[in-house]
Design a protein that fits this description.
two-stranded antiparallel sheet; about 50% helix; Tetraspanin/Peripherin; Tetraspanin_CS
């Protein structure tokens, strides 16, 4: 029993130590592309908490400290509860997030006089003809619309250019901010941000 106990103790120490050392590097890959994400501060906070928990797990396993191991267990339990709560809230409010994301996209399109991201009105799917508030999607509301600015599509006058050619920030259905810029800006984003709003119910 003593040998098994020692093996478990050192195994717990090694795994917690490795997790504590290598976990911060998982954020370095996301640093450039996720700098403007809404949830990045929360992820950093969670990462810091996990690092502290890993340290408690290491010390508690080596010193066989019941206090440290208890704190380690409580911390893991709290993280589990937060993850479950976040998943439930995300599922419950997903439709609301998608709906208000559509309004954000509408505002961006009106400001930059563009329509869609890569495929124009096709990015909106079946919701293209669904009014959002008092405005119609991609509606060209210029006083004297020219052929360079507007074009006819399904009997409506809409903006001609796609929004990928303009610098703007889109709010994706997942709640994060997706930075997009003209191709010369060095950033790239595909039409994934539009997928979640194609099937928004009125």
């Amino acid at each position: 029993m003593a040998g098994v106990s020692g093996c478990m103790k050192y195994s717990m120490f090694i795994f917690n130590f490795l997790f504590w050392i290598f976990f911060p590097f998982s954020f370095q890959e996301l640093e450039i592309d996720s700098r403007l994400f809404a949830g990045v501060d929360m992820l950093i906070a969670v990462g810091s908490i996990i690092m502290v928990l890993g340290f408690l797990g290491c010390c508690g396993a080596i010193k066989e400290s019941r206090c440290m191991l208890l704190l380690f267990f409580i911390g893991l339990l709290l993280i589990l509860i937060l993850q479950v709560t976040g998943g439930i809230l995300g599922a419950v409010y997903r439709s609301q997030v998608q709906y208000y994301s559509a309004f954000s996209l509408m505002s961006s399109q009106s400001s930059y006089q563009c329509c869609g991201l890569l495929k124009g009105p096709a990015d909106w799917g079946k919701n293209f003809n669904t009014p959002l508030g008092s405005n119609k999607i991609c509606e060209c509301d210029a006083e004297n619309p020219s052929t360079d600015l507007c074009t006819s599509f399904e009997g409506r006058l809409i903006y001609k250019t796609q929004c990928i050619s303009h610098p703007l920030v889109l709010i994706s259905p997942s709640g994060g901010y997706v930075p997009t810029q003209a191709p010369s800006g060095g950033r790239h984003v595909d039409s994934e941000a539009f997928k979640g709003i194609r099937d928004i119910e009125k």
